[in-house]
Structure formats: structure tokens, C-alpha cells
Design brief:
With about 425 residues, this protein is of the alpha/beta class. The protein folds into 3 domains: about 5-155, Aconitase, domain 3 (2-Layer Sandwich); about 155-270, Aconitase, Domain 2 (3-Layer(aba) Sandwich), CATH 3.40.1060; about 280-415, Aconitase, domain 3 (2-Layer Sandwich). The chain contains 15 helices and 19 strands. The strands form 5 sheets. It has a 5-stranded parallel beta sheet with strand order 5-4-3-6-7, covered by helices on one side. It has a 5-stranded parallel beta sheet with strand order 17-16-15-18-19. The longest helix is centred in the N-terminal third of the chain and has 16 residues, at about 70-85.
Length: about 425
């Protein structure tokens, strides 16, 4: 019997097999940010274990509240900053060089095919877009990862999503994953790998694949994963060009991280996307989704474009193409946060930032703040936000606030209209 990509990664990294099918896996990377990691740091320090297994494999960023908004968040940042310096961690991205973790770490070449990656953040599943096993973990597992470079996992079963057809104009990866979550429910992939395959995935950019994998956790998934291909090679080439003579050599190596044709899956779900519409959430769970056409006219108070889901340059380009030459409605406010300094720089060079500003958007530095209701776009009680983020539970972006999840295209169209609306790109031929 053949093996899935995840089974192959487990086999290559397994140090020990414990009872109950639990494997001890060697880690290729441990990612850290200032919200969850300080808890682990303080506990390790209290136990006299202020050290790391390999400073070159630990990547650190201050991203959730940046710059710090109060004493509490300043202490969190300082704890992380001092720890990184004490332990000689070179890949540390402080304020001014920082970006949203699940955008800047791939951008720096830290996510690779076949890697095992953990982080104290549920959206670590994003990095599965590179053909890696990437998962969010709790504090105890994070401490062990930092200290010893290992983590225990029970090998999860895999659900394969085979996406056929051609995406209609104005329909994006965000719409695809919202549709899938709506199909299977928020518990539909609990403790499972969501493996995304098929010609639709083959056609997606790495940025779109990251969007897709990013929200696997919203269906309960341990991780999302895509097969590495030449797009993966192209994305990483700057960082791997000294390891391979040619891109074709890199591709040959990466292809060992592809599921076998006779791999065994818990289930296979075939999806034809040709009739898919732009999607939006309507309630307080990510599986409460409808076509945007059924929500048009619903009032919003804020539009937010950014986050580890949709704050990349292709997202900003799409939104800007809709906003160009137009003004956002006087009935709402718009906030945009490019996910990394490099993305911000590209958006400046391409005139995208100017388009956002001319349309009436507030442009902020790279940060996660608005997404989790901590800074740079917090909602007041009773307010509604049309957001390109990934989570919409009650109060996510501010106590008493409501969030409608959608693509950057829908968000831009909504900003102009003053209420939820499909973009002019949808249905265009």
C-alpha cells in the first residue's frame, strides 16, 4: 500500500514510536511569536532550562501587537526579544522588520517541502502549502520543541480534496476554502490532514495555496497540505539555489513529498468549482457560509484587508484593481495591513498603497492586531466588519462585534458599496 505525503514525512522524521500510535518526530523548524512563546520562555527559565536545541532552527517574530500598545504587550515583546538575544537566535524579526508570522516566515524561505514545523499558533497549518507537516501546538509541546527539537504526534488520517474544473472570474482560494468548510463543517476534519489536490490547486499560486491551507484549522484540521511543484521551486529558488544545480533537480527532489497513487485515505471528496460563487460567512462559525449574492445589502461598519490569510501582495493587487479611481462609502471605514515589510514595499512601488489611500482606506504597518481584536482595527460592541481574516466567532475582532469572512475582492467591493456586495470581477467574461 502506498503512502500519503504526511505519512512519508512522519516516516522520515520519526525518532521513536510510542504506544497508541504516537510518534516522536524530529523538528526542522520551531516558529515563535510574542503572544504564546513568552509563557513557554518563562516556564523554561523558572525550571533552569533557558536554552534552545538549535538557534538556527528557531524563527522568531513580534507580530500580533506591533508596536506594543500597552505595558502588557510591551512586556510580552521584551520577553521574546531578550530571550532571542540570550540564545543567539539570528532569525529574529523585531518591530520595523517584522511581519505577520505565516507570511514572513515563508517569504524568508523557512518553510520547505518535507519539513516538520510547529508553533504556538493555530494557523501554523498555513505552511503545509509547501508540502510540509505544519501544526499549531500547546505550551508544553512548544517548550519541548524549543528545548529538544522534537514533538509528539499521533499520525493523523488524511482526507483528500480533489478540486476539478476552472475557477470563475472573481472567485478565489478564500472562496474555495469557505465553501469546503461549509460542506464538511467546523468539525469535519478534526484531527485530520486536509490534502488539497487536482488541477485547481495546480493552477494556484503559492500565495493562494497558503490561503487555502491557512484555514484548515477552521474545519478542525491538524494541517492542510499541497504537493510541491515547480511553483514551489520558483517561490523558494532564492533560498535553495546553492543546494541544487537546476530548478529541475530541485523539483525532482521535492517530488518525493507527493502522495503515492495507491495511498490510503479516510475519504476522498471531489469538488467541481466551475459553478462556485464568491462566499461569505453570515454567523459566528466559519461553516456558516452563503454565496455573497445571498448577503448583498447587509450593512457593515468596517472593512479590513490583511492577516495571514489574505494580506499578501496578490490579495492587495486584487483589492486595488477594484478600488482604483473609486471612493469607499461614507457609511464605513476601511483598514488595510500589508502582511510583511516586503509586501508593503511592493505595494508602494506598484502604486497600490496610493490607491488604497486615495479611496479612503487607513493603511497600517504589518500586524495581526485587528484580526484578533487587539489593535489597529478593533470593533465596538454591535459593529460589523467585512474581513479577509480567518476567524469569525463572537467578539473575535472586538467585544460584541461581528465578522463576515470574505475574499479581498468582495471586501473591496463592499467598501465601495457600503454594504456586502459581489465584486465587478465576478461573472466577468
Amino acid at each position: 500500500m502506498g503512502k500519503t505525503i504526511t505519512e512519508k514525512i512522519f516516516d522520515a522524521h520519526r525518532i521513536e514510536e510510542l504506544s497508541g500510535g504516537i510518534s516522536v518526530l524530529k523538528l526542522d523548524a520551531v516558529f515563535c511569536h510574542e503572544i504564546t512563546t513568552p509563557i513557554a520562555i518563562n516556564d523554561l527559565s523558572a525550571r533552569g532550562k533557558d536554552r534552545v536545541f538549535d538557534p538556527s532552527k528557531i524563527k522568531v517574530v513580534i507580530d500580533h501587537v506591533t508596536p506594543s500598545k500597552d505595558t502588557k504587550t510591551a512586556i510580552q515583546a521584551k520577553t521574546l526579544r531578550d530571550w532571542a538575544r540570550r540564545n543567539g537566535i539570528k532569525d529574529f524579526f523585531d518591530v520595523g522588520r517584522n511581519g505577520v508570522c505565516h507570511a514572513i516566515f515563508p517569504e524568508k524561505g523557512f518553510s520547505r517541502p518535507g519539513y516538520t514545523i510547529i508553533m504556538g499558533d493555530s494557523h501554523t497549518c498555513t505552511h503545509g502549502a509547501f508540502g510540509a507537516f505544519a501544526a499549531g501546538v500547546g505550551t508544553t509541546d512548544l517548550e519541548v520543541g524549543i528545548l529538544k527539537g522534537v514533538c509528539t504526534f499521533k499520525a493523523p488520517k488524511t482526507i483528500k480534496f480533489n478540486l476539478e474544473g476552472e475557477l470563475p472570474d472573481g472567485v478565489y482560494a478564500k472562496d474555495v476554502i469557505l465553501h469546503i468548510i461549509g460542506m464538511i463543517g467546523v468539525n469535519g476534519a478534526t484531527n485530520r490532514i486536509m490534502e488539497f489536490t487536482g488541477p485547481v490547486i495546480d493552477d494556484m499560486s503559492m500565495e493562494s495555496r497558503m490561503t487555502l491551507c491557512n484555514m484548515a484549522i477552521e474545519a478542525g484540521g491538524t494541517s492542510g497540505v499541497c504537493y510541491p511543484d515547480m511553483k514551489t521551486v520558483d517561490y523558494l529558488w532564492e533560498f535553495i539555489k546553492d543546494e541544487y544545480k537546476t530548478k529541475e533537480d530541485a523539483l525532482t527532489d521535492f517530488r518525493k513529498w507527493v502522495s503515492d497513487p495507491d495511498a490510503e485515505y479516510e475519504k476522498v471528496i471531489d469538488i467541481d468549482v466551475k459553478d462556485l460563487e464568491p462566499m461569505v460567512t453570515y454567523g459566528y462559525k466559519p461553516d456558516e457560509v452563503k454565496p455573497v449574492s445571498q448577503m448583498e445589502g447587509a450593512a457593515v461598519d468596517q472593512v479590513y484587508i490583511g492577516s495571514c490569510t489574505n494580506g499578501r501582495i496578490e490579495d492587495l493587487r486584487v483589492a486595488a484593481s477594484i478600488l482604483k479611481g473609486k471612493k469607499i462609502s461614507d457609511n464605513l471605514r476601511g483598514v488595510v495591513s500589508p502582511a510583511t515589510p516586503d509586501i508593503f514595499k511592493k505595494a508602494l512601488e506598484e502604486g497600490i498603497i496610493q490607491i488604497f489611500m486615495d479611496s479612503g482606506f487607513c493603511v497600517t504597518n504589518p500586524t495581526c492586531g485587528a484580526c484578533l481584536g487587539m489593535s489597529n482595527g478593533v470593533l465596538a460592541p454591535g459593529e460589523v466588519c467585512a474581513s479577509t481574516t480567518n476567524r469569525n466567532f463572537n467578539g473575535r475582532m472586538g467585544k460584541g462585534g461581528m465578522v463576515h469572512l470574505m475574499s479581498p475582492a468582495t471586501a473591496a467591493a463592499t467598501a465601495i458599496e457600503g454594504s456586502i456586495k459581489n465584486s465587478e470581477l465576478f461573472g466577468r467574461k
